[in-house]
Amino acid sequence: MTLExxxxxxxxxxxxxxxxxxxxxxxxxLTALTGPSGCGxxxxxxxxxxxxxxAAGHLSGVAPERTAFLFQENxxxxxxxxxxxxxxxLPRDRRGECARYLALAELTGExxxxxxxxxxxxxxxxxxxxxxxxxxxxLLLDEPFTGxxxxxxxxxxxxxxxxxxxxxxxxxxxxxxxxxxxxxAFNGPPLTLLP
Amino acid sequence: xxxxPVKKLIRIAIPLAFWLGVWQLAAMAVDLELMLPTPAxxxxxxxTMAGTDTFWLSALFTLVRVFLGLLLGTALGVLLxxxxxxxxxxxxxxxxxxxxxxxxxxxxxxxLVYLWVTRENIPGVIAAMMVLPVVWSSVSGGLSSVDSQLLxxxxxxxxxxxxxxxxxxxxxxxxxxxxGFLTAFGLAWKSGVAAEVLCPPxxxxxxRIQQARMALETADLFAWTLVIIVLSLSLEALLRHLLKAGxxxx
Lengths: 195, 250
Prior knowledge:
By secondary structure, chain A is α/β, with parallel strands linked by helices. Helix content of chain A is 28%, strand content 28%. In chain A, helix 3 (98-104) crosses helix 4 (120-134). Chain B folds into 2 domains: 1-31; 42-249, MetI-like fold (Orthogonal Bundle), CATH 1.10.3720. Chain B is built from 10 helices and no strands. Chain B has helices at 4-30, 39-50, 53-86, 88-103, 106-116, 122-144, 148-156, 161-198, 205-214, 218-249. Classes of the chains: A alpha/beta, B mainly alpha.
């Protein structure tokens, strides 16, 4: 899958984050975006996911409504159990797949646990499992392994690769970047691709 | 070390005994039953009244009126809170009107409503009018404090409106609703009985209070007030218990 980003412009108040930004982004397997905090990586992901509308420019290659976005924050619902988080995003005819997503995120046995009782790493894995369960043509994962130990992160990366949907992720962790097929490094703002 | 139930009993019994003592001493000092009857005299009066059908029917009818008013006011308050939150025209038109209702003295409403509805229905209508702004205000507060990140998640994860309502709005608003509802319950009870006193229906606690006042039966007046207090406290405790049980189930 190749995303064509053409002449994208977006600013938050005075701060120009995307200034006529263009890029051909190849997203097969695992693709990573990296760069200093605040350079505009998350904004770019949000534009691709349809969560931000650029003031100008054009994006093609994927329909925003066919992406699944993992936010930087877990955004779990305090009143829903682990299992309910997954069931909430699965259509009725796929409810049987819940156990598979929980196993993928190593959360089997925690079905009835509420988010308040989860550790930071478990909560992150639940948010990741929910995003994968939602599915689509492209998974957009913003810092997916925050709070997850290195070994487990590698196992999760392997499973992400195996499940077949292309993944575009943001990360600063060298171990994660080295496990990806392609890494785009940026600077900014405004967002600029480093050679 | 005392076990917890004993401690609880002490926490209730000591203040109760203290204030009953103060009451008894004050009654003895005044030494005029018309002004201040003794606790024993009020208890006797209460027991005598409890032996009549009128006592139970009056309490029952008052309860029904207050509860119907509470339910009506709560339903309207919740409905209007959602309407004023999501429809700007409703917010523009209704929010000031609801604030005016909240600021209007209950007595003005009772006398006004007396012109429009039958005596039997006044307490329910008044209770509903007192409950509505309180529930509206607490649910509106809950709706505006819903986490915007969760709402963005609902959009990004393609939740339907119904799902967003059930999974995000309702659980977020719930604690605000419960606190507003319990406050509203106390208000409904007080305003409902006040309406019964000013516009006495045939069978009502308020009517009995009015009757006792006219007949200068101060002990009866105290006894009915005691009935109101006991009913109000026990029903509030029951509501708290039910709402808490519901929360655990959800």
